[in-house]
Amino acid sequence: MTIDAKICGVSDRPAIEACVAGGARYVGFVFFPRSPRHVTPVQAAGLSAMLPDSIVPVALAVDPDDALIAEIDAQAGVSMYQLHGSETPERVADIKARTGKRVMKAIKVSDASDFDAAEAYLDVADMLLFDAKPPAEMANALPGGNAVSFDWTLLAGRNWSLPWMLSGGLDPENVAEAIRVSGASAVDVSSGVENAPGVKDAGRIAAFLAAVKHVR
User: Fold this and answer.
1) Catalytic residues, which ones?
2) What is the rounded average pLDDT of the residues 165-177?
3) Helices (H), ranges, the chain
4) Contact 5, 189 (CB under 8 A)
């Protein structure tokens, strides 16, 4: 079984090079000013230009307005959007039609009932991403990249009509177990391959991608 890996929140050349060398399938650029991983569309364009055709450049946005979508679409060189806010199914469909690009919708999970939210997006999104819902008591929580995981057994045996990706609290040490428990065929990491918030560690990126490759 081949597992696809996404390295999210990439913002510099060494991280890009580690993603390419390690065989990442997706690289994510964050367009959310409150995130320590935030980049501008122009910065993302320079980074996405370094990617081979085998790697999908993804724009992560949080309830983006039309102006931001237009700026990303015109400048950033991405081929997929990851919507990580409270976007409605109608907004997902609108962004997909507006850009002509694939859209992945993030679903925040803390318990089994949260999966019900995915149903509304099955006819409009191209992919789902299940991320951990930050605890209510977490101060200054971000929409993603909080190094928080949810119970992976909640995903075991579940099927959707769309491909899906597992995110939330993954790192080189636990990703193999997360894949085995959840049955995920794609995984996403951000803070788990950093040595400080927003600062990617090339060695940890390499270790994460190697761990994913060796899952059997």
Assistant:
1) 8, 131
2) 96
3) 13-22, 41-48, 66-75, 89-99, 175-182, 202-213
4) yes
Q: Is 136 helix (H, G, I), strand (E, B) or coil?
A: coil
Q: What is the pLDDT of residues 98-113, one digit of tens each?
A: 999 999 999 999 999 9
Domains and CATH numbers, the chain: 4-213 (3.20.20.70)
Measure the CA angle with vertex 63, ends 92 and 95; round to 5°: 30
Separation between Cα atoms, residue 97 and residue 101, nearest integer Å: 8
Work out whether strand 4-7 and strand 80-83 pair parallel, antiparallel, or are unpaired.
Answer: unpaired
Spatial contact of 152 and 180, defined as CB atoms under 8 Å apart: no
Amino acid in the structure at residue 35: S
What are the start-end ranges of the E strands in the chain? Answer: 4-7, 26-31, 56-61, 80-83, 102-109, 127-132, 164-166, 186-189, 194-196, 199-200
HSE-up of residue 50 (Cα within 13 Å, Cβ side): 17
- Residue percentage of the chain with pLDDT more than 90: 88
Other CB atoms within 10 A of residue 81 CB: 28
Q: How far is CA 69 from CA 28, 110, 141, 177, in A?
A: 15, 29, 24, 36
Other beta carbons within 10 angstroms of residue 111's beta carbon come to 10
Residues 47-74 pLDDT 10s: 999 999 999 999 999 999 999 999 999 9
pTM: 0.93
- By CB neighbour count within 10 A (0-12 exposed, 13-18 middle, 19+ buried), where does 70 fall? middle
Provide the residue type at 102 as one letter.
Answer: R
